[in-house]
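Here's what a typical entry looks like (Chitin synthase III catalytic subunit):
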Amino acid sequence: MTRFGDFKPLCTNTPSYPLCNLFYRQLQHSAPTVLLNVSANATSAPIGVNPKCGIARVGSENSIGNIANILACGLSILVTVWLIYRCNYRKAAVGRIEFRAFLAVYLVTLPLQLIATGSFLEQGTTTLVAFTAIHAGAVTALFWMLLGNALVATQVVEDGQPSSLIPFYVLTAFFLAATTYISLDVALTFTSTFEPGDPKDSLHSISLFILTLIWPGVCVSLSLHSCPTYSCLTLFPVGSAALLYFILMVWIVVGVLHEMRPILYYALAGILFIFAQLAYFLLSRTICDGTSAKIDGSFIATALETATIVVLYFAWQRITEDHWPDDNLYFPQ
C-alpha cells in the first residue's frame, strides 16, 4: 500500500524523474540489495530506482543519454535569455524586477535539469546528488517566485522597492536552502532525520514530497481524500502554487484592470502547464517503451513548460506599460 510521502511509484514508472537520484544514493549505502535489474549496476543505471523503462547512462549500451530533453533544455535556455533581455526594455512595467528574477531562476533550473536527467553522470555519485539537490531547491523556489509575482501585481506593496524585494528574495532563499538541505540529507543521510524507513524500497520522504509535489499545500487534505492512490498528487507537481498564481492574476486582470483579453493568455498558460505535467507523468513511460528507451516524454514537458513561461511573459506584457507616461512628452525650449 502506497503511503503519503512514498516516491516509489514515481521512481518506478516515470522515466527521468530527477529526485530518484537522491534515493538511489540512499539505497546504495543503506540497502544495496534493493537495487535490482537495470539499477543493480551503477555504471550504466538509468535515472530511477528499478525503473520499468529508463535511458541508460551515456556510453553504456550505445546510449547517447536523454538527447531529446538535452536539446529541449538547450533551446529553452536561448528562449529564456531572450525573455530576460526583453524585460530590460520595460522600465515602467509593474513587477519588472520580480518577473525578471523569476525568469533568471527558471534559466538556472534548465542546465540543472539537463545534468540531473541527462544520464551523463554515474548513479550514486556525490556530484549527481549535489546537482539534483540544487535543482530541487531551485524548482521549489521558482514556484514561490511565481506566486510572489502575483502578490506583487496586486500592488499591496510597491514593486521594485525594499518592502517588496526583501520578502521576495528572503522567501526565495528560504525555499532554495530548505529543499536543497533536505534533498542532500535524504541522499547522504548525514543526520538520522531522513534515513530510509521500512520498507526501504518505498523511497519515503514526507518533507521532500510536500516541498516538491504539494507546495504550498493548499487543498492538500482534499487531494488526499479524493485520491486513494497518488494519481492526483503526482500529475500536477507544485500545482497548488500555480493554481494560486492563476487565481490571483485572473482577479487582478478582470476585477482590478477590467480587461478580458489578457485572460486568454493566462488560460493558454494554464493549459500548457497542465499538458506539460500530463506529458511528463503519463506519456514518458509510453514514449520510453515505444522507442526502446532512447527518449522519453521529458522533452515534451520541457518544451511545454518553456512555452508556458513565454505565454506568461506576453500576458504580463499586456497588462503593464513599456515606459512611464511622460517619457515621450515634448517640452518646447
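The chain has one domain: 8-318.

More examples are in the samples folder.
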